[in-house]
Design a protein that fits this description.
The complex is a heterodimer of chains A (140) and B (500). By secondary structure, chain A is mainly alpha-helical. Chain A has five helices and no strands. Chain A starts with 12 loop residues before the first helix and ends in a 9-residue tail after the last helix. Helix content of chain B is 73%, strand content 1%. The chains are: A mainly alpha (140), B mainly alpha (500).
């Protein structure tokens, strides 16, 4: 049982501090950069080149708001899925690395088996993706 | 017989999850010309599950828990798992008769059926609110896709979208209520909730707790098609592929009631029974009359069965209204209500699949679900007409069929609560008559009206055998219900803590 279901209001003070610091930092940085630019720059501040988004120095080809092939999104989704699934391996590795002391009555062999089950599910997903031809980009 | 030892609470879940993966593998490595193998693999998986549930699990054994109490295996869980395994087997048998009409994705269709089934197995033995939410969502997410599976038909897409939007809303209700319950008790497990209520010693629980309970019950009410969360039912039932509709009708309703029963057996006590009894009586009234009255003007068979399923939710809610008011509170009435719900769900599963199998076969042959096209079915195919008639009569509650005994048990449990239940009893009886009227309207079309198109509808060997088996099951469950009633009562008595 926790001591009280409703926490006292002062637990939110750190949250308030974070908001204040974030807002204050933005305000300070923006005003400092504006003031410094006004004082040091002599040329005109607004020009077409200056208003383009930063693109690693390459000239911009087209607008970014166009339609992309749905394949980009599928690959992006698959990437995120597999990426997040791999994240689960880290906590497993930490517990496995602690060895006998932290295994909670389950043998290391059992923990390893659990990982194999997890990887098996992942492998099944990968097999599904490959066999369904999601990664083949050449139109037939 | 207990074949899984300490892992009995996850036996069926593991088997069906592995089976779903195996079906997907079979689909990946089968050439297009031999896709019927996928259905065969899926059938093999559900047959194994069916055998494991009915013959590989101990019904009266000790209550087993796993994973820190988040999964519980007691008599109620075993009974529900058996119901779900039966429904899963029937769903795959129905899907095999339907899959030629799927433009693509047979493997995915069977995979999703099995993943929904895995979720239902989990639902029947959850022990805390978080695993309740996760397993419930496993069921619901599978059904979102299954309902929209024939995406070339606008009605199917409409069904999937409605289920998605309203289902997400219901999930939000469940989560919101869960947050309130956690806030009020500081514990997510059902056992912790029970301990918290016991520590109040009969005093009414806090408003937060009641509010949380109400939200969770409303969210679950969506799954069972309870008024006021019933709006999605007719549209989804009509638009979804017929095997999905049947599985949704049985699976979603049984999964929802499994959780409502778990929650009610947990929280029912001296401090809450008054409010619970009043709530469920009112809900049963509204749901009974809404479902049965709205079914009368329907012209589409699937839509008719959708409204009738709302009506059946009303009958099932009568079992919860049997909790009884404080002055008359009787644990054995509450337990008999729960037992009646368990038995009714099993009978409803068999009956619904009996009806939907005929709907699937009829629309495969004629491409229509309209009631007017069923005219003269008895002359075109006596077997189809007879099977549908038996299933409809069982839904209506005519003896000696399974549905009659289920309704009898529900009404008996309400009668046990004394004078307070009389109003509900009368409402139930009136609704049986209303139900009989619209079911018999369809029967009359099949037997009295002349057919528009007199060409016979042949039924092949295995399909005919399945229809005979389902009809026989309805008769057996109605004439010899003893063994099943004993199983259900033992489970319910254990859940309510009533001895022997």
């Amino acid at each position: 049982m926790p001591e009280s279901p409703v926490p006292p209001p002062d637990v939110y003070v750190p949250l308030l501090l974070v908001v204040l610091i974030a807002g204050g930092l933005a305000a300070v940085l923006l005003s400092v950069s504006t003031v410094v630019t006004k004082l040091t720059m002599r040329r005109r501040l607004r020009s077409p080149t200056r208003n383009t988004p930063y693109e690693c120095g390459l000239p911009i080809l087209t607008d970014a708001r166009t339609r992309f092939s749905v394949k980009f999104y599928i690959v992006a989704m698959l990437f995120i899925l597999f990426d997040i699934e791999v994240v689960f391996l880290y906590p497993w590795a930490v517990i496995y690395g602690r060895g006998d002391s932290a295994r909670g009555g389950l043998g290391l062999g059992f923990l390893f088996l659990e990982l194999l089950v997890f990887l098996g599910i992942l492998f099944l997903g990968w097999l599904y993706v490959v066999r369904k031809g999601v990664l083949e980009w050449q139109a037939e | 017989m207990d074949i899984a030892g300490p892992f009995a609470p996850v036996l069926l879940e593991t088997l069906s999850a592995c089976g779903a993966g195996a079906v997907l593998l079979v689909d990946l490595f089968t050439p297009e010309a031999r896709k019927s193998r996928v259905g065969a693999a899926s059938l093999a998986v559900t047959a194994i599950l069916f055998l494991a549930a009915w013959f590989g699990m101990e019904a009266g054994g000790e209550t087993a828990t796993l994973f820190g109490g988040s999964l519980v295996l007691d008599g109620m869980a075993v009974f529900l798992k058996r119901t779900f395994a039966t429904a899963g087997l029937l769903a795959v048998l129905a899907a095999i008769r339907y899959e030629d009409r799927l433009p693509r994705g047979r493997g995915e269709f069977h995979f999703l059926l099995l993943s929904a089934l895995t979720g239902m197995f989990l639902v029947s033995s959850v022990g805390d609110l978080m695993s309740m939410f996760v397993s419930l969502e496993l069921v619901t997410l599978s059904f979102f896709i299954l309902a929209a599976f024939r995406r070339e038909r606008p009605e199917s897409v409409e069904a999937g979208l409605k289920l998605l939007v309203l289902g997400s809303l219901a999930a939000a209700f469940v989560l919101f209520g869960t947050a309130f319950l956690y806030g009020a008790t500081g514990d997510l497990t059902f056992a912790g909730l029970r301990d918290h209520l016991a520590s109040l010693r009969g005093a009414p629980p806090s408003r937060d707790l009641l509010l949380g309970l109400l939200f969770v019950l409303l969210g679950l009410g969506f799954k069972i098609g309870m008024v006021p969360m019933q709006v999605w039912v007719p549209d989804v039932y009509q638009g979804a592929p017929a095997p999905v509709t049947a599985f949704l009708a049985v699976g979603s309703k049984a999964a929802g009631f499994a959780l409502v029963l778990r929650l009610v057996t947990t929280v029912a006590g001296p401090g809450t029974k008054d409010s619970l009894q009043l709530l469920f009586t009112a809900l049963a009234f509204a749901t009974l009359f809404y479902g049965n009255l709205a079914a009368i003007p329907q012209t589409n068979v699937k839509r008719l069965l959708g409204y009738s399923s709302i009506g059946h939710c009303g009958y099932l809610l009568m079992g919860l209204a049997a909790l009884g008011p404080a002055s008359y509170y009787d644990e054995s009435a509450a337990a008999s209500g729960a037992a009646a719900i368990l038995f009714y769900l099993l009978a409803y599963a068999l009956t619904t699949f009996g009806a939907f199998l005929v709907v699937i076969l009829f629309s495969a042959a004629t491409g229509s679900d309209e009631m007017d096209d069923y005219a003269g079915l008895s002359r075109r195919s006596p077997l189809l007409a007879a099977s549908l008639t038996v299933a409809l009569l069982s839904l209506a509650g005519v003896p000696p069929l399974a549905g009659f005994f289920g309704k009898f048990m529900l009404m008996r449990s309400v009668a046990l609560t004394g004078p307070a239940g009389f109003g509900l009893l009368v409402a139930g009886a009136v609704n049986v008559v209303i139900g009989l009227y619209y079911y018999l309207c369809l029967v009359k079309r099949m037997y009295v009206h002349p057919p528009k198109d007199a060409s016979p509808l042949p039924v092949t060997g295995p399909t005919a055998a399945l229809l005979y088996a389902l009809t026989a099951a309805l008769l057996i469950l109605g004439i010899f219900p003893g063994a099943f009633v004993t199983l259900a009562s033992d489970a319910a008595r254990a859940a309510f803590g009533v001895g022997g």
